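Rotation project, supervised by the postdoc (A.L.). Task for the rotation student: set up a whole-complex structure prediction and record inputs and outputs verbatim in this book. Inputs entered:
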Amino acid sequence: MLQIRNLKCYYGGIRALSGVSLSVSQGELVALIGANGAGKSTLLQAVCGLLPSWEGEIQFDGKSLTGLKPPAIVARGVSMVPEGRLIFPPLSVLDNLKLGAYLRSRQKDHAGVQQDLEKMLDLFPVLRERARQNAGTLSGGEQQMLAVGRALMANPRLLLLDEPSMGLAPLVVRKIFDTLTELRKTGLTILIVEQNAQAALEIADRGYVLETGRMVLAGEASQLLEDKEVKRAYLGKDYSKFYEGRG
Amino acid sequence: MAVPGFPENPDSQQRSQHQLERLQETLNRAYRSVPFYQAAFKEKNIDPLDVGGLEDLAKLPFTERRHLAENYPYGLFAVPLRDIVRIHTAPGEGQAPSVSGYTAQDLDLWRGLVARALAAAGVNANDIMQIFLDPGLASWGRGYKDGAEELEASVIPLTALPLEKQQMVLKDYKTSVVVTTPSSAEELCQGLYAKGINPNELALKTLIFAGEPITLEDRKVIAGKLHVDTWVHYGLSEVPGPAIAFECKAHEGLHVSEDHFYPEIINPSTGEPAAPGEEGELVLTTLTTRAFPLIRFRTGDRVSYIQEPCSCGRTLCRINWHQERTDNIVVIKGVKVHHAQVMAHISKALGFTPTCCRLLAGKKGDRVGLEVWLGMDETIFSDEIKELEKVVDNVENALIQELGITARVRLAEGEVECAEPGRREVAP
Amino acid sequence: MQAEQISIFIENKAGRLAEVARILSDSDVNIRALSLADTSDFGVLRLIVNHTSRARDVLKDNGFTVRRTSVAAVEVMDQPGGLLAVLDLLNGAGVNIEYMYAYANPPGGNAVMIFRFDRMEDAIELLKNNNMRILEAEELSGI
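Outputs recorded:
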């Protein structure tokens, strides 16, 4: 579904990605893990058309995304949950969700949007409770759910998530990730970028490991969880402590 | 074995995407963790990021057998030793052997590869599989044992039983599959006939040849004598991959496990890619191994691509494996013996380097072994027979002790006509 | 006191011995004494000839491996017990014989045996002291 070949990106004069290749097949949940600054977010931004320039090849459904603006990419079926949520605090939860369906509303798909809105509120009951509240009053976890809901309102076939666990308590992370597993069961294809390698690999089918702009490892998520190198580098003490409470 | 992200029968686009991803990861890891590769790349002024497509692999330097010996023992390992769970030794070039290491995941991977190759030959849980290989191929023996166990077959592992006991096991244990080399199969065959055991008394139905190529003719003879189907597997001794390439039921060439190895065929003299369909030296790059990556490893084996798609439906590319080699290696019952290495031991045994020496696969009595023709010169020559016999004994003993090779040393008048290097000739 | 012998390495295959004979004949070298020791694979041909250096050179030129060795040519009485007397003497002194062979058409009436001992000098000394006749090199090859 998504095929990236030899992606090179530059931030100023500095190369953030040095020829990275990655692919996601229909229906897969793939995790891209790596340390802060490895270039994970840059990769997602390139896919979404948020970078001014990049080299290499990004194909979605066999067609190149080169030169497409973000709305055109969303229209193709790719939707992103950005790092730090980026919801609109003064707007209500409902309005935030509707914003995600901006393109569809313009195409007068009001019935479809309304239907999906209901689906989102079913998926995240807490959002239904707070539907009329300003998004700014939501907790971090609720905001993250809202961000996911908003991305899904575009009715994507590929959902990209950038550090969805960031700054959230373990229980909340678990809730979000459980939701991703549920979404994946509905046939949605998901690419998740995470520093929290443990949590991401636990729900993923496959994983990739990015290290200073270079891909160094890939494999089945269950294997990567057992991989000594991955354990040392990304599943270190900090995360195991972080996850001690988990069943 | 299904590789994540790589369907069993990928289309060419899926294959190239998978191979490029794994190749780039392998290069990045090797460059980061193995000083030898980093130095080799730097010498050619190449960074892994210059490999943006599979075709760019040709820019990278080759890895040769001598490099393995030069980095003895652990110089080419790409993971810390604490991640290594198994260490294998293969006869190398010159005095030092080549040592390879495996992580637990590497072993899983090999098990899967061998299982896939065995399954293609129809091996399943109902089979009793006997591994009959030269002790020099012990690491392959383990590979086959693991792979067959994965398929839940009953395995009789490689043991140092004499031929007669192997025959007893074959008959009494109702072995249905034998993994062996063509020359060991020949020995087995002769032994059975000598003992008057009729192949019809055996449960044997499948013979898997590893270690050496075999001519269609020889294959037909053995298959006819033992009443079995025969299958050929290709592997490297440097990494215990007895089944890097394997035959399917079509028996038309060997499918290369392209999900784990990227194959190239080069002209051995120029190092340039061979023309499509043309015969050349097989060069392999590992795509998934962790502990012991090999980048553009020159195998010395002569192969050619089969262009047509296979009737079995597998889309893994196919090769023909030819008899001749492109290097100075003699293959004795699947064990690779390097000319330089044998020479080193001969020189040590003699106390000097003989002026000429020729190595062939030959026979000592009924046993397949190495035949060493030593060219007579004034240093070796003595007017006393016992002195000459001592030379023969010393060299034979040195080779069995140092390399585990049964050798027959023969003294030849003057300069031995040197055969094509590494040509496999069987003495009458 | 020591005579010179040339030894030649030959593979056990048809025509090699004839080849040596032909090369020597072509160079007008006469073979005075000959012994062939062999195994299943190869043999060592030992010769006493009338022109040792020439024989060696032509054989080498023809690709043979040739070696010169000192041997002792000992006159043995042509009567029962003649050889035994020599052997007893050597045996008593602990000298080992590496090999020995007979000389064709010896000068004078008696037999001549060619010996190679493990201790050449000692053996020759011993034989001479016991009035055994050792033929000179010239005596052997000059005839």
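Student's summary: The beta strands of chain A are 2-11, 14-24, 29-34, 54-60, 63-64, 78-81, 158-162, 189-194, 206-211, 214-220.
Supervisor addendum: The two ends of chain A are 34 Å apart (CA to CA).
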